[in-house]
Specification:
The protein has helices at residues 49-56, 81-87, 104-108, 123-137, 156-169, 186-201, 213-219, 242-261; strands at residues 11-20, 23-33, 38-42, 64-69, 72-73, 89-93, 174-178, 205-209, 222-227, 230-236. By secondary structure, the chain is an alpha/beta fold. The model is unreliable at 1-6 (pLDDT under 50). The protein binds adenosine-5'-diphosphate (ADP) and magnesium ion (MG).
Length: 262
Amino acid sequence: MAESPVERNALRMVNIEKYFGLVCALRKINLEVGSNEIVGLIGDNGAGKSTMVKILTGVFPPTSGEIYIAGNKVDLRNYNVKRAHEHGVETVYQDKSLGEKQVLWRNFFIGREITLPFGFLNVKKEKEIANEIMVNTIGFRGKGITVDSKVSKLSGGERQGVAIGRAMHFEAELIILDEPTVALSLKEVAKVLNFVHKIKEAGKACIYISHAMADVYEISDRFVIMDRGEIVADMAKKEISLKALDEFLLEYSHGMKDKVEL
Ligand SMILES: Nc1ncnc2c1ncn2[C@@H]1O[C@H](COP(=O)(O)OP(=O)(O)O)[C@@H](O)[C@H]1O
Ligand SMILES: [Mg+2]
């Protein structure tokens, strides 16, 4: 498909709304993510971040609105997790995305196995690809860890690396990480951030959700701030320092508290 400059975005959400019964979880969400942009999505608990992720990944549909992925309009009436994969949207959930007892290479191709004629698993090919991605694309340096290692042997950060590597292998246009560093040690967080840098280097786009502001600041090109179902600020990294961003968030939450107390 010919790409016009307007449609170079990895993602465009237009007037997305989501109601759970009478509760409005998302209100008129308009968001664009550039084809090689890392967007840090920030907001307090309950802001609607995960709801937005679930809509993008086909877990449930929005109540109204439109979604375009790499310029292609998504048919939201027939959207699900499999279709989201086909469109190039991959989500890396915190730990849950990896099967503990499996070996790394099998995990890599779960649900998308490479088969030989007669349906046999192409073990050699799967191992080769998994190794290539983990070592060269992701830069996996885990001591004693190979594609034959069990997932349960990997550290938390390494598991995130496998999930990110898998998303990159399947040619994701947009990789979404919803709080990938919760419960990880500092050293492990550093690994995850390094993997996110690989997403950028590979020319892909990413939405990175985290409460750790220093981390979000370091890896993001842009910040989108949500509050109670709405996008309340959208700024480029070059427009704001980490200190100013922290202050903005603090003042914003205080302002909100004052309003609530009135
Ligand atoms: N499945 C659901 N059913 C009803 N309400 C939900 C559901 N999922 C989320 N919500 C509500 O939507 C709002 C946004 O939640 P969520 O997207 O999880 O926020 P965040 O990820 O930013 O913490 C909250 O008020 C939450 O209670
Ligand atoms: Mg959430």
